[in-house]
Amino acid sequence: MFDNLSNRLDGIVKRLRGKGRLTEADVDEIMKEIRAALLEADVNVTVVRSVCNRIREHAIGATRSQALDPGQQVVKAVNDELVRILGGETLTVQYASKPPTVILMAGLQGSGKTTATGKLALWFKSQGRQPLLVGADLQRPAAVEQLRTLGRQVDVPVYSDPEDPILTAYEGVEEAKRLGRDVVIVDTAGRLSIDAEMMEQVRLISGAVSPDYTFLVIDAMTGQDAVQTAEAFHETLQIDGVILSKLDGDARGGAALSVKEVIGRPIAFASTGEKLDAFEQFHPDRMASRILGMGDVLTLIEQAERAFEADQAEQAAARMMEGEFTLDDFLEQMQAIKKMGSLKSIMSMMPGMPKELKNAEIDDEMLVPIEAMISSMTAEERARPQIINGSRRGRIAKGAGVEPGEVNRLVKQFGDMQKMMKKMGMTGGGKKGKGKRG
Ligand code: GDP
């Protein structure tokens, strides 16, 4: 996500950092590049104009000030602008003093609204809440069934009445009160494009349930249309926040960078994949750092905390340093890393990760044969891979469906890794686990 924009801005930032002095001609040159980068990323023209004006003002200020590092000041101005147009602060959900807190989901058909409804329920559960899902999308025949499936997956009850969407929404809130559920998320019907009848229905539903929050789901892949969609929904519904879906695609990201500026409402959540936990709160400051190639360490740590059991990670790290790390530990760590998200998304959040690596096609499938090979080994082989001889190698390869040469390579790489860890351990590397809960 935002890959192209990130690549271009990263290049500008790198050059700026080295600059001792900055002339007005430099500023003109930089502004031309920033404008081109934003336009290419599909950011709305009006937004580009106002953003560039503000950055330019800072940049000109930097050429005149006696500051030591004017380049750094411009980088800061770009960063501040990105944070601003991405919405400033992270949205904090204020729960209704008299439960349930009602959330209304709106959006076009195919935007990922139903998926986001399920994901949001899981997110509320992670916040210690007990949500109830309401299926008021009676337009798309399979929508309620899809919601029921999602409900089962996240273990959250689903209410729906096939008779009438408005009644369903109203009754859904009553049902939540009866069941003592403290959050209600109402999925509503979308259409392929903005349409008066759909707007009227969602307006009536909104009137029937008086939502505490109305979230608009926008598909990041739709580009500039997203801005018009957002404007139309905002006119009817008073949107409180946007849920940006499909940020895992090759979207240029411009929609994300325009919606806040146009409707004045922040992006609240980002949906980054088909899996239910591929969903996170949107943090403008972290996203800006990610775009500028400064990494997103905080999100990485949060994901690690979710994926690793603290003790398990600490023990593994200790064993690692003592050179007692086995293939079993290796497999366990690999599985935990996989839980954090795709390898590509993890790499994209690491600060200082070279662009070539970030953009390399890293396929999670690459882990599959490694996992299969380790699973085909006996406990003894995992603990002491050096005992793997020709016949054992043949057996493991057959079990994992790979060539014996691959088993050899894994054992050798693992041996090298073990040696390296032992060395690091002896030279006094710390023993702290990285997944420790703070
Ligand atoms: P709705 O019509 O708005 O309710 O859309 P759905 O929730 O049914 O989503 C439409 C399609 O987009 C489905 O195939 C989803 O699996 C897919 N989808 C939803 N969110 C995401 C996402 O964040 N990333 C990806 N890659 N696909 C998504």
TrEMBL record:
Q: Where does GTP bind?
A: 107-114, 187-191, 245-248
Superkingdom, natural source? Bacteria
What is an example of a GO molecular function annotated in this UniProt entry? 7S RNA binding
- Keywords per UniProt: Cytoplasm, GTP-binding, Hydrolase, Nucleotide-binding, Ribonucleoprotein, RNA-binding, Signal recognition particle
Stated EC number for the protein is 3.6.5.4
Instruction: Spell out the reaction equation it catalyses.
Output: GTP + H2O = GDP + phosphate + H(+)
| Keyword match Metal-binding | no
* Stretches the record annotates as Disordered: 425-438
PROSITE patterns per the record? SRP54 (PS00300)
GO CC annotation, single:
signal recognition particle
Per the record, the GO terms for biological process are:
SRP-dependent cotranslational protein targeting to membrane
* Catalytic EC class: hydrolase
Give the primary localization class.
cytoplasm
Q: Which Gene3D superfamilies match?
A: P-loop containing nucleotide triphosphate hydrolases, Signal recognition particle SRP54, nucleotide-binding domain, Signal recognition particle, SRP54 subunit, M-domain
In this protein, which residues make up the domain named SRP54-type proteins GTP-binding? 266-279
Where in or outside the cell?
Cytoplasm
What's this chain's function?
Involved in targeting and insertion of nascent membrane proteins into the cytoplasmic membrane. Binds to the hydrophobic signal sequence of the ribosome-nascent chain (RNC) as it emerges from the ribosomes. The SRP-RNC complex is then targeted to the cytoplasmic membrane where it interacts with the SRP receptor FtsY.
Q: What is known of its domains?
A: Composed of three domains: the N-terminal N domain, which is responsible for interactions with the ribosome, the central G domain, which binds GTP, and the C-terminal M domain, which binds the RNA and the signal sequence of the RNC.
Family, as annotated: Belongs to the GTP-binding SRP family. SRP54 subfamily.
Q: State whether it acts alone or in a complex, and with which partners, per the record.
A: Part of the signal recognition particle protein translocation system, which is composed of SRP and FtsY.
Indicate what this protein is called per its UniProt record. Signal recognition particle protein
Organism (species):
Ilumatobacter fluminis
Question: What gene is this protein translated from?
Answer: ffh
